[in-house]
Amino acid sequence: MGERIKTGIIGLGGRGMGLLTQIILKMPDVEVAAVCDLYADRGEQAADQVEKAQGYRPVVTTDYTEVLAIAEIDAIVISASWAAHMDIAIASMEAGKYVASEVGGAYSVQECWRLVEAYERTKVPCMMMENCCYGREELMVLNMVKHGVFGEIVHCAGGYHHDLRDEIAYGSENRHYRLNNYIHRNCENYPTHEIGPIARVLGINHGNRMVSLVSMASKAKGLQEYIKREKGEHSELAKTDIMQGDIVTTIIKCAHGETITITLDTTLPRYYSRGFTVRGTKGMYAEENLSIYIDGMHDQHHFDWKGQWGNVEGFREKYDHPLWKKYIEEGVKGGHGGMDWLVFEDFFDSVRKRTQTPIDVYDMASWMCISALSEDSIAMGGHPVAIPDFTNGKWMNR
Questions:
Q1: C-beta of residue 123 within 8 angstroms of C-beta of residue 363
Q2: What are the b/e assignments for 345-380, b being 16+ CB within 10 Å?
Q3: How far is Cα 144 from Cα 73, in angstroms, rounded to an integer?
Q4: Where are the bilayer-spanning segments (predicted)?
């Protein structure tokens, strides 16, 4: 590998184009050598941005295998549709390229095993770009957990609480893949924003693992009502049945007895939240009101709730994660409050040093499989489903 990291970007919809223009093209030692999208116009628009930033035009194609065939490319960034992530990641590893895959859920447990087997065969690292693992609150709470502030962790919760009715309803017009998923599937389709940070807190795949889950979905009414209001009752989409339940609740059991509750909530009117919650024997953290409650410090009978909501700032000086202390000093960059820059900085640092990525293929498989397993559980009325051990026992000593 030369001094500059040569990168190919596959998938240039809203997320891919945002990553290209806000993050990747602003990284000084990263060079975009090729761009690819199934829609030719997206690829050309991306190439225009690359040419403007780098002074020359990258390879442009609608066939991702042509990107993988470029010998000098070191790394592949996958921001295509959910269903394409696994196949492109596997092909990239087989081509000897480091993989950065955007988030999403798996469609089958078998494809998760294929991903793991591809890594074990090629030894080429593959990283899920779960930016929420790099959030300031999530990392501060992780730091507090490691310092024993909350005692022994018993339960964690989180969710993807994001009103996406507009994005989903106009999926055909915007050539966005989410719409087809909501028409045909009923599952926890986007689990990793919450599972990622929780997995770090609970040591998942590093001394602990998720062993089983149960999942239930509410009826699907919110999206159809929105479509009828915005597109008219006689529109084709208004007459289409939506499979995806408005609220999906999944409960996961871990090997050491902890429980995790995650919630998908994307088709009813609401404010944005990831609902990150950590409960331990000595205290708790709740994202919903940015509050920390410590046994002995806060008296449950005399706690001034109104005055203490949002008291997280009082813990910053002592527990803010070192990564964020340095980041704030140097200047926060990129999208999603700076998380995007940090996750890509970590990925490209691994490529540069030819080391393992901080989120690895076992994490990716474990987190993504929740979608496929929740789909099975919901279809069987909330029946418990076993979660595979993608490490084949290595989680005990990793």
A1: no
A2: bbbbebbbeeeebbbbbbbbbbbbbbbbbbbebbee
A3: 40
A4: none
Neighbours of 120 (CB within 10 A): 12
Terminal-to-terminal C-alpha distance of the chain: 29
136-146 helix and 192-202 helix, angle to the nearest 10 degrees: 20
Distances (CA, A) of 265 to 89, 191, 218, 272, 311: 28, 11, 10, 10, 27
Q: What domains can be seen in the chain, in order of their start residue?
A: 5-130 (3.40.50.720), 133-321+361-396 (3.30.360.10)
Within 13 Å and on the Cβ side, how many CA atoms surround 37?
Answer: 21
Q: What SS3 class is residue 213?
A: strand
What is the Cα–Cα distance from 358 to 191, expressed in whole angstroms?
19
Token couple for 381: 């009325």
Does the pTM exceed 0.85? yes
Q: 2: pLDDT confidence band, cut at 50, 70 and 90?
A: low
Residues 373, 187 contacting (CB under 8 angstroms) = no
Q: What is the DSSP string of 48-89?
A: HHHHHHHSSPPEEES-HHHHHT-TT--EEEE-S-GGGHHHHH
Helix H or strand E segment including 126? strand 126-128
Identify the pLDDT of residue 310. Answer: 84
Read off the pLDDT of residues 279-323 as tens digits, 9 standing for 90 and up: 999 999 999 999 999 998 887 665 555 556 789 999 999 999 999
Residue 72 phi/psi, 5-degree rounding, is: -80, -10
Map residue 261 onto helix, strand or coil: strand
* DSSP of 327-350: HHHH---SSGGGHHHHHHHHHHHH
Q: For residues 143 and 137, give the distance between their C-alpha atoms in angstroms, rounded to a whole number.
A: 10
